[in-house]
Amino acid sequence: MVHKVFREIEETNFMLMQSQQEHEATLEKSKDELRRVKTQLESQLKEMDLKLVLFENQIDTEELKIRALSESRSNNFRMGGLTGSEGEQSDAKDIRQQSSSNEDRNISTSSSSKQGQTSQLKCNEFDSLQLGIDDGKQNMAAKASAKSNALFMFMKDVYTKMNIDSSSSTCMRMLFGMESKLLQLTRKFEQAESDQVKSALKKQDTERRDKLRGEKNRIKKEIKERNMKESLRRAKEPVHKKVGRPQIFRLQPIVNRKKQVEEEEDKIDEDAEFFVE
Q1: Where is there biased composition of kind Low complexity (predicted)?
Q2: Which range is least confidently modeled, 4-13, 130-139, 229-238?
Q3: CA separation (Å) from 204 to 42, 53, 66?
Q4: What gap in Å lies between CA 226 and CA 147, rounded to an integer?
C-alpha cells in the first residue's frame, strides 16, 4: 500500500516536472518570437524613416526647381514690358518731331528709320533671348519630368514591397499613404495584446525545444549506430588463438636467516667466569 502511494506521488511529480519544462520551453520561445518581431519592426521603421527623408529631399529639390522656373518666367515678362514702354516712348518722340516743324521732315524720317532699325535689332535680340530661355525651360522641364518619373517608380516599388495599393496618381498622395501605413503599423505594434505575444513566444519556445530534442536524439542515434558497426566489425574479425604453454611465474624460495646472538653469548660467558672465581 505504501509503495503504491509513493509510486503515485512519484508519477505526479514527474508529470509536474514535465509540464513545468514544457511551460518554460514555450515561454522562452515566445520571448524569442517577441524579440524577433520587435527587431523586425524596428528595422522596417528605420528603413521607412530613411526613405521618407530621401523623398523629402527630392521634394525640396523639385520645389526649388519650380521656384527657379517661375522666377525666370517672371523676369521674361518684365523684359517684355520694358521693351514695349521703350517703343511707346519712341513713337511719342516721332509724333512730337512731326508736329513741331514740317521743314525737318527729312531729318525726322531719317531718325525714325534709324530708330526703327534699332527697335528691330532689339526685337531680334529679345527673340533670340526668348528662344534661349525657352530651350533652357524645356531642358529643365525634361530633367524635372525624368526625376519625377524616377521618384514615382521608386515610390511604386516601395508600395509593392509594403503591400499597399499603388493606385495613387501623385507622389504626394503616395507619401501620405506611406505615412498612414507607418502610423498604422506602429499603433498595431503598441496595441498588441499580451496574450498573442505570449502565445507566439510559447510557440517559438516549443519549436526551439523540439529542435534541440531532435538534435540530441539524432546524435544518440549516430553514436549507437557507430557502436553497432564497431561491434559487428570486431565480431567478424578472426579469433586470436594463443600458441604454446602459458608462462608461469615462480615464487622466490624461502631463505632461513640465522639470528646473530653474539652479544648474549658474551654475557653468559662473563657470568660463568664470575661464579667460577
Answers
A1: 108-120
A2: 130-139
A3: 20, 36, 54
A4: 67
